[in-house]
Structure formats: C-alpha cells, structure tokens
Amino acid sequence: MLKLTNLKLGQKFTILLLVVFLGGIIVSGVALSTILNRAAQDQITSKALMLMETMNSVREYTSSQVKPELIDRLDTEFLPEVIPAYSAREVFETFRTNKDYGEFFYKEATLNPSNLRDKADTFETGIVENFRQQDSSKEVRGFRKTPSGDLFYIARPLKVVKQSCLECHSTPNVAPRSQIERYGDTNGFGWKLNEVVGAQIISVPAVTTFRIARQSLALILGIVVAVFAIAILMVNLWLKRYVVRPINRMAMVAEAVSTGDTEAEFGQLSNDEVGKLAQAFNRMRMSLKMAMQRLERYRMGRRSSGPGASQNAPSQNAPSQNSH
Predict the structure, then answer these.
(1) What is the pLDDT of residues 231-283, one digit of tens each?
(2) What confidence tier does 76 reach under pLDDT thresholds 50, 70, 90?
(3) Which phi and psi (to 5°) does residue 3 adopt?
(4) CA-CA distances (angstroms) from residue 12 to 2, 115, 244, 266, 284?
C-alpha cells in the first residue's frame, strides 16, 4: 500500500484535491438529484394543470354552446359530442399528437359513469374518496405503480357544479332516450349537485420525469466536473511554480552548503512564506560562513602559537657569534 509519506508534495496536494472533488461530487450529486427531481415534477405538473384548464374550457364550451344546439336531437339520436367528458377526452387525444404531450394521459375517473371507459379503478377510487372526505383539497400528485410501469399523476376533483349535468345523470326517467339505449339505465345516475363524482387525472410515465431530471443532472455535473478539473490543473501548476520549484532549488542549495560551498545563495523570488524561508536560509548560510571563518582563524592561530613554532623561532637573548 502506497504511503503518503513517500509521496512528493505535489502528489499529496493532488490526492487531497481529488478527495475533496469526489466528496463534493457525491454530496452535490445527491442534493442536485433531489432538487432536479422536484423541479422536473413541478415542470410536468405545470403542463398538466395547463392541460386540465384547457379540458375544463372544452367541457364548458360543450356544455354551454354545443349541447343546447343539439339537445332536441338526443331523443332520436345519441350524439356523444354533447357530453363534456367525451369532448374533453377527444380533444386531449388531439393534444397527444404533439410530441411534447405524447406521453401524457387524461382520464376523468368517475365512480359511477355512464360510459364504463371512465370507470375509476381501485387506485383512482381512493383518490376520489379522499376528495370527498376532504372537500377543501384542490389537487394531489404523486407516483403510482401499474403493470406497464410507474406513473407520475396529478389529480383534481370533478364536481357537479351545473344543474344541466343532472339532466343526464339524476334519474333514468329524465335522461334522453338515446342515452338509455346506448348505455342502459343502470350506470351514471344518482348524481347530486355539488357532489364530487370523480377526478380529473393526468398521468405521465415516471421514467419521463426521471429522464428530465437525469438530463439536467448530467449537464450540471458535467459543468462542475469540468470546473473542478480546471481548478485542480491550475492549482497544481501554481503549486509547482511557486512552491515545489523554489523548495527544490533551496534543497539543492542546502545540499551544496552542507558540502562546504558557503557562497551558494538561496534565491528569494517572493515575499510569501516560501520567500521568507529562503531569507531565513540565507541568514543561516551567512551565520554558518562566519562561524567557519572564525573557526578557520582560530585554527590558524593555534598553529602559529604551538610548541613547534616557538622552537623554530630565533631567541632574542642568544649571544652573537661575532661578540668575541
């Protein structure tokens, strides 16, 4: 196993930056994934609510404009175009031809519909019952599991707000004869004014929601990775130029000084900590040079004043040979 003590300063710093980088990517990735998933759900919800408002406009138009024009023909001929739910469903299918809405599904899930196509399943029944119990609830959203995969759904209560709706859904006696012939007299009756009878539900495959979030996450993390990579490269270049190289030069000079070359100088190229270190080494070199010079003078003085030097020197008191 590689020990950090055996690595160079630049390598240690690179490892530290990589650890910080990986930790930052993991933490930010988890946080961004949560945020982007929520943002993707909000984006889809915004589209779904816009579609619901559009379907409500279609329902209103059908109820107030189309049905009065064709009501007299319902006794002899059934015209599904006068039914708001039918019009909304058909218009939505036209919406789905647009690639931006091709994965959206619309259903008016009803507890007791005339057309069993709109019959609420077990999950949808739970949503409708919840709307009935909590009359103030305006909207719910979440995920549900289906045999074809998970779905993200947005639901709003479907309430009977017009008396005209009861012409077809109060009792079989007042319903148009063509409606009875088409759907029978068992389903779709017993509705009451201001009663929640179903839920408008728009759903989209959950994979679509996650795909939007993943695309955004990949883009953001790609930018973050690129920025971190550039930062690591720039920090390493800066470290090599302003820290590693000066320290290596000081190490070479220190090696030369240790072998006796007291004239070698530690170049001070900056006023930062590395420059101060070079300045301190220079003072130490000068102190060492002065100490070696004093030591050398001391040694020379000892040699000149030793016993051998006194024996070889001529005596001032010795008699001259020419005195006789």
Answers:
(1) 888 888 888 877 777 777 777 777 777 777 767 666 666 667 777 777 787 78
(2) confident
(3) -95, 140
(4) 11, 72, 12, 25, 29
Instruction: Determine the Cα–Cα distance for residues 168 and 197; give it in Å rounded to an integer.
Output: 14
Range of the structural domain that residue 45 is part of? 12-218
Over residues 163-169, the mean pLDDT reads 82
Taking the C-alpha atoms of residue 295 and residue 308, their distance in angstroms, rounded to an integer, is 21
54 and 120, same domain (yes or no): yes
Based on the domain organization, do 179 and 294 belong to the same domain? no
> CA-to-CA distance for 155 and 199, rounded, in angstroms?
6
State yes or no: pLDDT of 323 exceeds 50: no
- Of 42, 281, 76, 86, residue with least CA distance to 179: 76
Q: At a CB cut-off of 8 Å and minimum separation 6, what does 49 contact?
A: 139, 154
> How far is Cα 83 from Cα 65, in angstroms, rounded to an integer?
11
Is 131 in the same domain as 274? Answer: no
